[in-house]
Amino acid sequence: MTITYPDSRIYKAHEKLVRREHQALAEEIDSLCRALDMTPQNISEVIVTLREILKQAKALFRHENRLMKISNSPERLNHKRDHAYLVNGLSDCIGSYVDATEPISPSIGEYLGIWLIYHDKKYDHAFFEFINPSNLCQGPSRTRH
Ligand SMILES: [Fe+2]
After folding, report:
1. What is the dihedral angle through the alpha carbons of 2, 9, 125, 58, rounded to the nearest 10 degrees?
2. Whole-structure pTM over 0.90, yes or no?
3. How far, in Å, from the CA of 72 to the mean position of ligand 1?
């Protein structure tokens, strides 16, 4: 397999941006956990925070998915599937809270935090290791075999 890197500096810059987006998402999940600790819970505030988490997660995943596509990451299908799993599950969860068909689970914040840590360790870390410029062959073609 040949992987072409048009400019390895671009990937390094994107890694920094993705790490910032990831940190912002983790902080939003922490906000959710704090809101869930309050008694009684403000349901509309929890839903607003969950929607913000979903929005940030979608932006982060779009960014990662684009990088995986242009770098031809070998794990992109499984990685993208894990992104879709969270987006679909969280969307359904928000819908059931809005419709009041399900009570807000006090553990939703903890679950999201654990999911993010697991996803980062299993998929994100491997992807950024894959595109790490220090792993590239140096030379005019900037390719790795
Ligand atoms: Fe990811």
Report:
1. -100
2. no
3. 15
